[in-house]
Specification:
There is one protein chain. By secondary structure, the protein is α/β, with parallel strands linked by helices. The protein contains 16 helices and twelve strands. It has helices spanning about 10-15, 30-40, 40-50, 55-65, 110-120, 135-140, 155-170, 190, 205-210, 210-215, 225-235, 245-250, 265-275, 295-305, 320-330, 340-370; strands at about 65-70, 85, 90, 95, 125, 145-150, 175-180, 255-260, 280, 310-315, 335, 385. Strands 4-11-10-9-8-7-6-5 form an eight-stranded parallel β-sheet. It has a two-stranded antiparallel ribbon with strand order 1-12. Strands 2-3 form a two-stranded antiparallel sheet. The radius of gyration is 20 Å and the shape is globular. 2-Ketohexanoic acid binds near residues 101, 184 and 284. 2-Ketohexanoic acid (7N5) binds near residues 130, 184, 236, 284 and 287. This is Oxidoreductase. Belongs to the FMN-dependent alpha-hydroxy acid dehydrogenase family. Its cofactor is FMN.
């Protein structure tokens, strides 16, 4: 029998009989405010902040909230199965943890704690290129749990080649290539505090431990950390890349490749034509193009364009189980969870991330059931209306 994530609800109530209440809120939209109170302004600003006037981040939430579910009744939802197949992998639920860089600003155990939490709950962990823990260390704590690697496509071919090799050796199965960050956007919350983690003593260990990266430094990282940081800033991405360059990645990666940050249907078609396996419809949580289309508004167009050729995944604004349901109804195969798990990590380490995953999936399970579905397969556009307001 498939796991009933909704059981978490009664686990919480039963624990309450001995006086215990959850350490973190079960409404995940409250985590940001708590994190603001407990963590320093630099790290919180970096995680919670977004590009420009913040309008894209707000639009992401509004586009999800504007869509309303129309529940159906009497459809036998007793036995439910949330599992889905994504890129040839059987996932227990349509969820993965999004790549989030430099998690050591949230918690000393950083990516290791988040990866352990994902593994414990059976949810794929997508490790950022810009992580504060080396690929190998994350692989070590994950056993044989499902893990994907997010690539910032470096200007330095050897660094990219080296990352791909290290990720492959570490058992990372899917390559997620982020396209929407060839440059770091204008981010006023960070600029006003003159705070960028990479420049404030937080090493991106994937780079600093990488032989190809170190080969380009005149002195060892510990002797001249500033030079190492500046080399990272100068080469982590490459604004000169174009679609034909994808052939290099296809040749150097055996598993599925997913392009993250696709919003235009024509770009989704180009991804399919380039032999990619999937796309993540995402605006990077509103952190890149202020004023851009909300991710949920871009999703149906991409699904119409390539839904029969590519796995279409979604992120940017997912905060509740209902949001997961709505993303699936708009055609996504699965969603990536970003900021909420970073807040869970910041507030309570591995346990906090597990709490976030369990709350989200319990709420999603209940949303499915109460809307008349026994699993993701039957969810579709007919389940939603758009709020005219
Ligand atoms: C602090 C932070 C760091 C991030 N770092 C990366 C990264 O290294 N690579 C990447 O592809 N996306 C990165 N993202 C974007 C997330 O993968 C995801 O697209 C975004 O968080 C989704 O928006 P949401 O958090 O509002 O749901 C980062 C997001 C945040 C908040
Ligand atoms: C150098 C940028 C990497 C982190 C990132 O993707 C983000 O802050 O959104």
């Amino acid at each position: 029998m498939a796991r009933h994530w909704a059981d978490f609800q009664y686990e919480i109530y039963l624990n309450g009989m001995t006086g215990a209440v959850p350490r973190l809120p079960t409404d995940l939209t409250r985590l940001e405010e708590l994190t603001e109170q407990r963590l320093g302004p630099g790290p919180v600003g970096y995680v919670a902040g977004s590009a420009g006037d913040g309008s894209t981040a707000r639009a992401n939430r509004a586009a999800l909230e504007r869509r309303r579910i129309v529940p159906r009744m009497l459809r036998d939802v007793q036995e439910r199965d949330l599992s889905v197949e994504v890129l040839g992998r059987a996932l227990p639920a349509p969820l993965a943890l999004a790549p989030v860089g430099v998690l050591s600003i949230m918690h000393p155990e950083a990516e290791s704690a988040a990866a352990r939490a994902a593994a414990a709950q059976g949810v794929p962990f997508i490790l950022s290129s810009a992580s504060s823990t080396p690929i190998e260390r994350v692989a070590e704590v994950m056993g044989d749990a499902e893990r994907w690697f997010q690539l910032y496509w470096s200007k330095d071919l050897e660094v990219t080649r080296s990352f791909l090799g290290r990720a492959k050796s570490g058992g990372f199965s899917v390559l997620v290539v982020t396209l929407d960050t060839p440059l770091l956007a204008w981010r006023p919350r960070d600029l006003d505090q003159a705070y960028l983690p990479f420049l404030h003593g937080v090493g991106t260990a994937n780079y600093f431990t990488d032989p190809a990266f170190r080969a380009g430094l005149a002195k060892p990282v510990h002797e001249d950390p500033n030079a190492a940081v500046m080399r990272f800033v100068g080469l982590f991405a490459d604004p000169g890349k174009t679609w034909p360059d994808l052939a290099f990645l296809r040749e150097n990666w055996d598993g599925p490749i997913v392009l993250k940050g696709v919003l235009h249907p024509d770009d989704a078609r180009l991804a399919a034509d380039a032999g990619m396996d999937g796309v993540v419809v995402s605006n990077h949580g509103g952190r890149q193009v202020a004023g851009s289309i909300a991710a949920a508004d871009a999703l149906p167009g991409v699904v119409r364009a390539v839904g029969d050729r590519l796995a279409v995944l979604f992120d940017s604004g997912v905060r509740t189980g209902a949001d997961v349901f709505k993303a699936l109804a708009l055609g996504a195969r699965a969603v990536l969870l970003g900021r909420p798990y970073a807040y869970g990590l910041g507030l309570d380490g591995q346990a906090g991330v597990e709490h976030v995953i369990r709350c989200l999936l319990a709420e999603f399970d209940l949303t499915l059931a109460l809307s008349g579905h026994a699993g993701p397969a039957t969810v579709g556009p007919a389940d939603l209306v758009e709020d005219p307001a």
